[in-house]
Amino acid sequence: MLATLIELVTGRDDLERVAYREDLRLLNGYLKTRRLLIPREPRRFLNAASFTSEELLELVRVESEELAGDPFVPWVLEAEGKRRLPAFSSQKKMAIFSGAISKRMGKVFSLGGAEILLKDLVESLDIDFIDLNPLCPKNWEIGVGVIRGGA
C-alpha cells in the first residue's frame, strides 16, 4: 500500500527508485530479491492491416490462451550483435515496450510474461545484457557479468 502511494506521488515504482540512485551494488543486491516481469517469446507476428480490429483481438486472445499451456521461453532480442533480455518492473512498463515494438515492426503480437528472479533465469540463458524497462522514458542496461558475478 505504501509503495503504491509513493509510486503515485513520485511516478516511480520500487525498482526504479533503487535504480535511480545509480549505485550498481545496491541495484544488484535488490535484483536478488525482486522478481521482474520477463516477456514470453511471441509465437507469431500478425500484420495489423490484414485483419479487422475484432479479428485481431480474437487472434491475440486465442494465442494468449495457447501460450498459457506452453513452457515459458523468454523473449531474447538481438541488437547490434548483442543478445538482450528485456525485463520489466511492472505490467505497465511491459505494455509500453509492446506498443513501441509493435509500431516499429508494423505487426501485432500476443505478449505474455512471467515474474522471475533474474538470478534464476540468467544462468540458463545465452545473453549479454538485461534491458530493464526498455523503450520507457528511463531505462537501464545491465551487463550480465555483473549479475552473474554478484549472485
Note down, in words, how this protein is organized.
Strands 3-4-7-8 form a four-stranded mixed beta sheet. The chain has helices spanning 2-10, 14-19, 24-31, 53-69, 91-105, 118-122, 144-150; strands at 36-39, 46-47, 77-79, 82-87, 107-108, 113-116, 129-132, 140-143. The chain is α+β, with helices and mostly antiparallel strands. It has one domain. It is globular and about 50 Å long.
Tell me the layout of helices and strands.
Blueprint: H1 2-10, H2 14-19, H3 24-31, E1 36-39, E2 46-47, H4 53-69, E3 77-79, E4 82-87, H5 91-105, E5 107-108, E6 113-116, H6 118-122, E7 129-132, E8 140-143, H7 144-150
Parallel strand pairs: 4-7
Antiparallel strand pairs: 1-6, 2-5, 3-4, 7-8
